[in-house]
Amino acid sequence: MPIGKLAALYALTTVAFFAMDLVWLSTATSRIYQPYLGDLLSPKPNMPIAAVFYLFYVIGLVALAIVPGLKEGVLVGALWRGALFGLLAYATYDLTNLATIQGWAWQVSVIDMVWGTTLNTAAAAAGYFAGRWLGLGG
Length: 138
Hints:
Elements: H1 3-37, H2 47-72, H3 75-100, H4 106-133
Helix pairs in contact: 1-2, 1-4, 2-3, 2-4, 3-4
């Protein structure tokens, strides 16, 4: 896989992932996170740290879900890997918080794991189609 096309795939997937998560967070924070977590939430998110998260996280999604799906030439390969990656990553975060942070709501963990699975599946689909558009895959 040519490095230039891989970089373009990464960039396009990052934009798709961030756009979908931004919509979710802008609508869910006041309806879900704030009511359940209250003072546990920072009044203002640390955007530089959030940006670092997105940049690192999408590397995993591209490497572990999208590229294997493209190599197989089958969308469903990217989808199930994206779903699994999202579930495992979000479960790691949410269940660790549930186990270690007093006042962390189990409802937030369940909702967030469902969202993480959904988001990663959708971003894997977007990345797969971006990869095909770039001429990658079988």
